[in-house]
Amino acid sequence: MIYHQQASNTILKQYIRCFWWLDNDSSQNLNYTILPDGFFDIIVRFDNYKYQSTVLTGLYTKEVEVMIPPNHQLFGIQFKLPAVEYIFYESIAPIINSEKKLPNTFWNLNSFDFTKNIDTINILSSIISQEINRENNLDDRKLYLFKLLSQTKGNESVNYFTDKLFWSSRQINRYFNKMFGLSLKSYCNILRCSASFKDIKKGDLLSNQNYYDRSHFNKEIKKHTNHTPKNLSNNENDRFLQISIIPNK
């Protein structure tokens, strides 16, 4: 299996976490468990580098099993929450824990040469930047909320955000449920779980992400991944892709 990812440019940094590429160059099916991480993706699927389809995923609140056949490739764009309003202009709440097929011509993704990923990423970055520039009325309060979520990794209460933003919990939760399909607290729990993956990979089975105790940590991790921290740490056959790709530092 070949996997690599590239960070977005400075202009797109608040909207895109990374571009990624996965190639099953083996003769066997690859089976992975994808874990909730607080991001959503566009995924372009190929069979022996021949374009097949494009899908948009919602946020995931639980694990999802995927199988990649031999000689199949995936190209992905991993988005942060601000992209929902300022790139796609529509809610992803209806596709939480699922995906929807996009037109083959969406952003001309069916016409790019994905064997030249750097060139393709540069062109796509230009296209996406133009999508953002269509609207200038970025809501500073929402962008500040997303910034705080990224900084705190979900390790704060809902009251922390309401106090910082002078925005009631009822209003924030209405916004989150409408646009993303879950409450702010649920999203924070997913971020905190995801932030623990680095600790889990190192064998630290009591993460530093402010869980009350080991029992609480185990319960929360299993709630979102359906696996104990120990199982994730063992990562048999590199099954948990997001843990496998964390650098060994």
Kindly state the number of beta strands.
Answer: 8
Total tally of structural domains: 2
Mean pLDDT: 91
Cα(first) to Cα(last) distance is 22 Å
Rg of Cα set: 18 Å
Which outline best applies?
globular
Order of helices and strands: EEEEEEEHEHHHHHHHHH
Note the beta-strand portion: 15-25%
Share of helix among residues?
25-40%
What does this protein structure show overall?
- The structure is a single chain.
- The protein is α+β, with helices and mostly antiparallel strands and 249 residues long.
- It has helices at 82-88, 117-133, 140-152, 158-165, 169-179, 184-195, 197-201, 214-225, 229-234, 241-244, and strands at 2-7, 16-23, 30-34, 40-47, 50-57, 64-68, 72-79, 99-102.
- The strands form 2 sheets. The protein has a 6-stranded antiparallel sheet with strand order 1-2-7-4-5-8. Strands 3-6 form a two-stranded antiparallel ribbon.
- A hairpin with an 8-residue loop joins strand 1 and strand 2.
- The longest helix is centred in the middle third of the chain and has 17 residues, at 117-133.
- The relative contact order is 0.15.
Q: Outline of this structure?
A:
By secondary structure, the chain is of the alpha+beta class. It contains 10 helices and 8 strands.
What is the strand and helix layout of this fold?
Layout: E1 2-7, E2 16-23, E3 30-34, E4 40-47, E5 50-57, E6 64-68, E7 72-79, H1 82-88, E8 99-102, H2 117-133, H3 140-152, H4 158-165, H5 169-179, H6 184-195, H7 197-201, H8 214-225, H9 229-234, H10 241-244
